[in-house]
Amino acid sequence: SRAISLHRVSKVYGRGTRAVDRFSLDIAPGEFVVLLGPSGCGKSTVLRMIAGLEDISEGELLLDGERANLVPPRERGMAMVFQNFALYPRMTNRDNIGFPLRLENPREDSTARVEATARMLGIEGILDRYPSQLSGGERQRVAMGRAISRRPSAFLMDEPLSNLDAKLRNHLRAEIARLTADLGVTTVYVTHDQAEAMSLGDRVAVMRGGVLQQVSTPREVYALP
Ligand code: ADP
Ligand code: ADP
């Protein structure tokens, strides 16, 4: 599980938008941090910079104290889950979940790890179907399974519940909390939904217009007069 430190990190796209402006946050190993804020405030950009999908324009990102620009994205051991699931349509769910394992070690039989991962998510029964044959909630469980099958050192989630209906959202929210606690994995979770942020985060980092406005525990927020 990784420590993630951002020190006055900025992102300027092209010659224009300063999407993230001097963002500083230290995330402890195993901590669950939520980035909360309205659409366009820079949450995804922060997540993508942590993952190495986006270069940092200014400032410094440290992973376990090491400068991230020295750690190639593939060696960061980070898994991402997106709003649109992004599953491979022509692979069975079993092959989707096992894909990162096969990439990492093509010769190793991934069956046992895929099945153990599926059990954690309660989706053992749908492994030999295709993503198109699943409900939205099942698809997001497969996407999470693919993300954690390799036991990532950090788990990055970008609005993973936004495409699900309210009932499923609540249900999966509880599963995400349990799963990340069981795995003890550092998690950064992006959402615009305050209730979701408060129920999931050890700490909630509120962003607005590219700027980190405040960081607090849900308990501190509810204690406000
Ligand atoms: P959020 O995740 O909070 O919705 P984003 O990080 O996606 O916000 O976007 C922050 C700002 O950066 C927005 O103004 C957005 O339009 C802009 N932006 C995001 N990605 C790009 C890009 N690839 N090129 C140019 N501008 C971008
Ligand atoms: P120099 O040592 O040449 O003064 P740096 O190595 O500090 O410059 O930074 C070179 C470029 O890489 C800068 O644009 C800087 O913002 C960016 N950068 C610095 N630290 C990191 C990091 N940890 N991850 C990604 N980019 C970084």
Automatic annotation (TrEMBL):
Listed GO biological process terms: carbohydrate transport
Gene Ontology CC terms, in alphabetical order: ATP-binding cassette (ABC) transporter complex, substrate-binding subunit-containing
UniProt KW keywords: ATP-binding, Nucleotide-binding, Transport
Domain ABC transporter: 4-225
Cleaved signal peptide residues: none
Record-annotated membrane-spanning stretches: none
GO MF, one example: ATP hydrolysis activity
Protein name per Swiss-Prot or TrEMBL: ABC transporter ATP-binding protein
Native source species: Streptomyces liangshanensis
From-to range in the entire protein, with total length: 2 to 226 of 481
